[in-house]
Amino acid sequence: MIGPKIIGKSVRRVDAPLKVTGKAYYVDDLKLPGMLHGKALRSNVPHALIKEIDVSEAYKIPGVKAVVTGSEFPYRHGLLIRDEPFLAQGRVRYIGEAVAAVAATTEEAAQKGIDSIRVAYEPLPSVFDPLQAILPGAPLIHEELSSYPHSEVCQPVPDSNICSHFKLRKGDVEKAFKEADCLFENTYTTSFNQHCALEPHAAIALFDPSGKITVWTGNDGPHRCLREIALSMSIPFSNVRIISAFQGGGFGSKGGLRAEAIAVALASKVKNRPVKVTYTREEVFTSTLLRHPVSIRSKAGVIKDGKIVAKKVELFWNTGAYGEKGPWVCRNASMSSSGPYNIPNVWIDGYCIYTNNPISGPMRGFGVPQVAFAYESQMDEIAHELDIDPLELRLKNALEKNDETAWGEKIVSIGLKECLKKAAEGLNWSEPKKDRNRGKGIACMQKFTTTLQGVTSAIVKYNHDGSLDLLTSSMEIGQGVMTVLSQFASEELNVPIEKIRVSSADTDYTPFDASTTGSRSTYHMGNAVILACRDIKKQAVSMVSEFLNLPRKELKFKEGKVVSTKGHEISVVELINRYYDGARGGGGDLVGRATFYTKSGTGLDSETGRGKRPAAFWMYGAQAVEIEVNPETGKVKILRFCTAHDVGKVINPLCCEQQMEGALAMGIGFALFEKVDVEEGQIFNPSLESYRIPTACDLPQDVKIFFVEEPHPEGPYGAKGLAEPATAPTAAAIANALFDATGIRIREVPLTAEKIQAALEKTGSIH
Amino acid sequence: MIGPKIIGKSVRRVDAPLKVTGKAYYVDDLKLPGMLHGKALRSNVPHALIKEIDVSEAYKIPGVKAVVTGSEFPYRHGLLIRDEPFLAQGRVRYIGEAVAAVAATTEEAAQKGIDSIRVAYEPLPSVFDPLQAILPGAPLIHEELSSYPHSEVCQPVPDSNICSHFKLRKGDVEKAFKEADCLFENTYTTSFNQHCALEPHAAIALFDPSGKITVWTGNDGPHRCLREIALSMSIPFSNVRIISAFQGGGFGSKGGLRAEAIAVALASKVKNRPVKVTYTREEVFTSTLLRHPVSIRSKAGVIKDGKIVAKKVELFWNTGAYGEKGPWVCRNASMSSSGPYNIPNVWIDGYCIYTNNPISGPMRGFGVPQVAFAYESQMDEIAHELDIDPLELRLKNALEKNDETAWGEKIVSIGLKECLKKAAEGLNWSEPKKDRNRGKGIACMQKFTTTLQGVTSAIVKYNHDGSLDLLTSSMEIGQGVMTVLSQFASEELNVPIEKIRVSSADTDYTPFDASTTGSRSTYHMGNAVILACRDIKKQAVSMVSEFLNLPRKELKFKEGKVVSTKGHEISVVELINRYYDGARGGGGDLVGRATFYTKSGTGLDSETGRGKRPAAFWMYGAQAVEIEVNPETGKVKILRFCTAHDVGKVINPLCCEQQMEGALAMGIGFALFEKVDVEEGQIFNPSLESYRIPTACDLPQDVKIFFVEEPHPEGPYGAKGLAEPATAPTAAAIANALFDATGIRIREVPLTAEKIQAALEKTGSIH
Question: Which residues on A lie below 8 Å from B26 (Cβ)?
Fold first, then answer.
């Protein structure tokens, strides 16, 4: 058996030529015949009734073709809870909510139309802090909460601002706390972040006379987007078509209906003309998604030798005015908030709480960066208190294969300890500290892929010239999925990667895929593509058996050919050309199809949060960092960084490393300085000038990347995912290194220079 | 067993809403970003060397972006023989040949660019008559003939103007002629016709930086068009993508590279900008295709009782300057030119002959209307001479099931005699003649579907909302294929037709199909769709077996559901939703795929024209007509018309009737007045004002349509094809009726009033 030829190789990204030549098209690049431009009028108050909307002036502006308000398009959307109007319906709940929209022949005319609309608001009491929002007497943001259709992921508490309450119960925490040697109780908090994808949100919608709605968008989940529009409007799914363009990054912000909602509402009014809506950067901040700030109260009971015996975690997720994927973030991240440790007694309450802030949602890690900051900071607090090396403490408690998790799953593939050891070794963890301003920190994480995984179908078309078309609904969001899928098909069918084309998604053509989220595509779509290739192999063998009249058992598919036990061989191309009349000017193809699905658990028990296999696979990683703190300014400089991840199998080392580097940058931003300033629901830094994201100068020179290959039994060539996890341990690793360097424990990210400086001033000095 | 529910029903055409609301898009409707408009400069001489092309003025015209000539794009195309340059290379061979092309920001600028180009020609001797073109010493039109790559369909004779020579040899005709009681030798001729599709030829081409060529076109064969471009330019097939729009009729004129060739040549020069080329009506006449005029010498040997014992046919097809599909028309129509009769001795020579005329090609019937005019006129001449009723003579000689044809095939499905009887009955054939100016005529025909049938693949996507997507490369060319395929899928899977969407072809997405020609789609694509539906059924049964742990043999698919012998049942939608997580916000689909192919003969023997199964199926039909001749003007009025066709199985009666009515109109035009006036290679009536096609006033009021359902063992529900055959017998039926009415035998179509009047004058009177 020869090993794989192209799996594990750093194949050049197949989308590179289009991207470096500027010819990869994004939604805003598209110009359709008769296309109009749409703009939305945004609420400037956080919570109010709409008494009147006067659009009469808008129609007088040359070029304005349509104005639409919520009363004319009275639908609500929301994948998990249908709470969000396409356009405000009588009430606004955050600053930035769309109140009306205008379509015009130019963007300028649309903006003039927007500027001419007058809205009369009657203010309502607002609430911005989730801990206040759950107090009795707090203003109710959704009085109709109990009437909203919602998925089982979302467990709303009627007549409250609790959009969803997730519970996990394992063992008896109170008893264990009593028996523990030490108790640790801390609160950790995080801030609003914005994804800051290079490409702002954009969508084009067209209603045609047959009643079909076509939407061009770079949405993460073309089929999910279709479903959400259809369910919102109560129309057949088949009346909606999503055509995907490349996505210029999304990181979780492009999975719902954002620009799509405005475009669809406008298109419904103009009919027969496409309407394009491209958000300004300010709208991306105010009116798409932010990363949830969360307040995490974590109580740990520990035996003196370092064994953690109980953990109770309460998480208060500030989800803003509408649910979006907040309930899901709350559930999934809360569920894993006791950390990747074997703890016999766990009690978790995660609250997803409405406030009058902009909407929160997933951002690279689906809440895990926040909870990892908490559980990994607390691990070091425990280590310090018990005087155990932080690495040792983690290794002592870390989950292992066949352990049962807090939610009751038996782990089938885990390389966590190996990751911890690699990360530590890479940083010479045991080397004694040399410089008083320097410190080292370590942290690890666990994250599962998306739980609403649905199924994943793929079609592979083996053309008569030996080229392949892969028809999938996976989205190229910058992560390299086109390349990885090409590698799988190339390996399976022995077709050179240059002869493989990966389609972009078009729901009328490409088969179902749940979404391109949760680091799921290599695993799910990879498996689907491999199975579709095997369907082709099976057919090729059948054809040879039929045409050459050979018993099927004497034939097998090997290296792109059907070979017989007697030594005959024929390639697929020859097969098509010989038996399908190709030589006579015909041609032909072999079409393979497959659906991959994991028979994962049928959900979690709503009272205990327990389930046998809530997700297809789990990802684990660890990071170790050495920093230097400037004692005058409080500024942190990252000297060395070492990241180790269990990816099951590295399919493309270069792509994997690029993912790690990108995640590292986002992790550092989250850890050190990224913060959307929101006060009373108003964002004060909604631009890339005022909201700071990392630049090359913020990144360490000395970065070591390790991959641990603990194969997943069901993964394609053993692969799991890796897009999200590397953002998660960074903040805690840096916070722990800061403590190591300075003795200062900061329990709130970002760990800004100002906070550090203030803390240094308070303690008087360094150490 | 319940009979079919929707097969055989007059379902409304699924493309009707888009078409009646004007929203079905054709190529010329498309406007792409940055699109340029292209025009071609056409040769005004029939045969000449190009001494110089001066394009310098063109570039001075504002808006002109590119000028291209044959030296810059030195490729030749041609499906059967690669003889035709995209743009003339040093030599022109017909009036209307493209010599240079211009792309500009507007059509006007492109035209100005064209008008500014100066070409210096050096005239060469020309030849226009195919019978002269094959004489020794005739000017050679393609000196390089022997060097052109060609398919086995084409048998060129080097150093001659014979582009292809088809031979069929059965028995010993000379011996049989000697033994026959009577010999009949006649020559029949036909004229140039033009298809006059409502939509003129149009194409848009784009070269992108990756080297990919995308062409938007309404071509009959998207995959064939792809292949022809790729082979012409020696680039990988996967570098070409064809995206189909609706086709506004083609009737055989839209199967090669016409506007596509000009658009591709221009796009190669401008790069990164799409170039649209839409032909004027004049260009459609001069520079696409005409129906072949053919001169047919037919000699029949007959026994007194009417039994035809030998037939020798020589056919001289005027194919114009380039081969296009001429060799194929010549082969297929010549092959069937002894008629649908059981004749023991047959000798056929078909010559496809180059001349300096515009290019000839297939037109609804692929040469069969021409040969049927000859063999069915001669049948009546025999009947008259032997004093046998024309119907009786035909019934006596007609092929029957299990007979062997002239080319050696055993017939598996034939309803010819039934058609003859139905047509005759419908016209009260035996009723004696009442009026001296009136006459009745009858004629029948045979035609096979395309012989280069290749294979046909289909993908059916069963979506989680119960809708279906049929992914096929069949073209909706007005014939109703979308409706018929929807009916097949509806019947197989019990899905309402409103929930079925049929894709348009896009070679990057839709699987291989040879072409939408030769009345092949109902049979070939119908079978592929049915098989793909059955692949879904099989998967559904497997899923139920797997999830419910039931033995597969206890399960079957019935009326859209999987049912168990114990009475359980589950629909596909429930199946997807229950087992693919649909209820939890996921979704899913079942993808079926299939390739249909006929193990037809591996071609015809090049010396004898014999083969076991040259095509998948044969079509038969008969028509009877009563006419009245105006003795003063010679004008023919059709009083009653009766057409009967063996379609195997009527899938959609309304669609079938519409096909018959359309064919009738084209048959009448061919019979009575359609003629492109070509003199010395110059067309004198290249417009819809000067070239007359039938209007409603030309069509009879009294039309009876009969379908004979002689099922084909391999056809979908027994269906064969029906788009072409009904055009074929019309001219002979009318010519025979004219003879019956007047005693005048005209052996040249069209049977214009002028010709009839002249003949009446010559004979002095009627009868």
Answer: none
Same domain, B574 and B499: yes
Ranges of residues in chain A with a pLDDT under 70 are 1-3, 452-454, 581-586, 599-602, 765-767
| In B408-493, alpha helices (H) | 416-426, 481-493
DSSP state at residue B765:
S
The identity of residue B245, as a single letter, is A
Q: Output DSSP code: residue B29.
A: G
User: Is A582 in CB contact (< 8 Å) with chain B?
Assistant: yes
Q: Quick one: A420 and A431 in the same domain?
A: yes
- Is A595 at the interface with chain B, CB within 8 A? yes
Cβ–Cβ under 8 Å, residues A416 and B550: no
Q: Is the peptide bond before B700 cis (omega within 30 degrees of 0)?
A: no
What single string gives the DSSP state of each residue in B612-670? S-SSS-EEEEEEEEEEEE-TTT--EEEEEEEEEEE-SS-S-HHHHHHHHHHHHHHHHHH
Above 90 in pLDDT, residue B266? yes
* Residue B639 domain flag: yes
Strand order in the sheet with B569-571: B555-558, B561-564, B569-571
Among A567, A596, A625, the domain boundary falls at A596
The more confident residue out of B436 and B179 is: B179
Cβ of residue A455 closer than 8 Å to a chain B Cβ = yes
What global pTM score does this model have? 0.93
A145 belongs to a structural domain: no
Q: What is the token pair recorded at A748? A: 């709130």
Closest CA to A580 of A547, A537, A558: A547
Residue B542 touches partner A, C-beta closer than 8 Å = no
Q: Which residues, 6 or more positions from A165, have their beta carbon under 8 angstroms from its beta carbon?
A: A155, A156, A157, A349, A350, A351, A352
Query: What CA–CA distance (Å, rounded) separates B396 from B670?
Result: 28
Structural domain harbouring A388: 290-451+603-763
Helix or strand run (H / E) with residue A459: strand A456-463
Q: How far is CA A620 from CA A274, A425, A723, B518, in A?
A: 45, 17, 12, 60
Q: What is the ipTM of this complex?
A: 0.88
SS3 for B725? helix
From A83's Cα to the closest Cα of chain B, the distance in A is 16
| Residue in A422, A518, A486 with CA at minimum distance from that of residue A710 | A422
Asked whether the beta carbons of B597 and A580 are under 8 A apart, the reply is yes
* Rounded Cα gap, residues B278 and B217, in angstroms: 10
Contacts with B459 from chain A: Cβ below 8 Å: 459, 591, 593
CATH number, domain of B490, equals: 3.30.365.10
Q: In angstroms, what separates the C-alpha of B585 from chain A's closest C-alpha?
A: 7
Report the Cα B291 to chain-centroid distance in Å. Answer: 11
CA B555 to chain centroid, in Å, comes to 44
Residue A748 DSSP symbol: B
What is d(CA B400, CA B404) in angstroms, rounded to the nearest whole number? 9
Cα–Cα dist A78/A84, whole Å: 6
Q: How far apart are CA B122 and CA A162, in angstroms?
A: 88
- Under 8 Å between Cβ of B66 and B270: yes
Q: Look at the block and give the residue holding tokens 């007497």.
A: A137
**Considering Cα of B126, then B131, then B133, then B136, what sign does the dihedral take?**
negative
Q: In this structure, how many other beta carbons lie within 10 angstroms of the beta carbon of residue A382?
A: 20
pLDDT band with cut points at 50, 70 and 90 for residue B576 = confident
- In this structure, what CATH number is given to the domain that contains residue B48? 3.90.1170.50
Nearest to B208 among A23, A237, A603 (CB): A23
Tell me the three-class secondary structure of A525-590, residue by residue.
HHHHHHHHHHHHHHHHHHHHHHHCCCCHHHEEEECCEEEECCCCEEEHHHHHHHHCCHHHCCCCEE
